[in-house]
Protein: PIN domain nuclease of toxin-antitoxin system
Amino acid sequence: MKILLDTHTLIWFLEDNPRLSRNAKLLIEDLSNEVFIHAVSWFEIAIKTKIGKLALPDSVEFIFAKATANQIETIPISPSQLTAYHALPFFEEHRDPFGRLIIATALNDSMKIISNDPKFPLYANAQLIW
Structure:
């Protein structure tokens, strides 16, 4: 199975945070799954740590290395993902550009998303796991 992690999912997994569901943790750890994080999530982490909206116990570089060590691959932004982003329905209650690009990428690349974001179910075609 191809899985795309939402930003908070990656952080919770790497921190062994109890807010991460048992199911999510097992799927991420299952080596038969291909697990990805979008480059936009790294951008989101960098921005939010810099402006003080996100506190991490480790540096961004350490978290990146830890993700790589856990077989989590980074997906770069592509033109086809941006086309999918543009085609997504716009919901006033979900204006988060990072989350919207994660959803667009999962739809574009036929991936399931592991996320606990309460806004993601607005996108009926997104295959969500928690």
